[in-house]
Amino acid sequence: MRDTPLLSVVVKQMIIRHDVDPELYLVNPAQFPAVVAVDSFREEIQVAYDDVDRMLKPSLIAETEPEPEFRDRCDGMGTLIRPSWILTAAHVAVELSEKKVIAFANAAYAARSIVIHPHFHNYSDDGDMSSVKHDIALIQLAQPVQNVAPLPLYPQTDELQKIVTFVGKGDFGNGLIGPDSVDTKTRIATNRIEQVDDQWLIFKFDAPPETTALEGISGPGDSGGPGLIETAAGWAVAGISSGQDSQRLGEGYYGVWEYYTRVSQYLDWIESVVQQPALNGSP
Question: CA–CA distance from 147 to each of 74, 152, 169 (Å)?
């Protein structure tokens, strides 16, 4: 029997090591209150039976059509960086309506405006990462978020070889099988920055033993979520989940390369947006 979703997902929860207890990757969302799902949807779960099921497990086959079951699915993440501003990926933001309501733990807030980087270029039809440019956007909320401290941006350009922590609620799996399940639980994973350029922080999903303790990468639904570097003052946002070069290995398998927008290269643009008088009706 196969659990087959009715809908397909193209955006990027966490894909982890197969040899580490998955419970170690779970965190209480209250540990990262500024990290939020900016998009989600409810999909119908379709149960499909093949001929083998019908022959070997006939008792599982319902005589009557069962009532449909549904599940919630995260479809994009973001990070509160000012009381009224969320940082996310442009390829997530272009799918959002300005009527979008975003739920933090304490309350929900309506979007006021969405600002896409003016030079953003999305994925080509074949998902080639080389075609993606400036995958960064900002969501302004109509009211400041209460009782949640925004996360600061990482201002340094010394990211190479640093350990980054990812936070997400998307699809879940491991490096042997790729994305495999959906539960919208908050997970973290870590990775080491192996390459940087004027746009990207680049990671490789290494197979054990050459890994970080909680090695992992983003999965479907994690796009727009943060790559965090721990500083003396606490967490800072160094990257934004953008996409993956699967090297024909398959999404989420060991050996793939993960790309996060390099926040340190966009500090001036971010500041210019949040300070625009036309947009700056709230902090």
Answer: 23, 16, 21
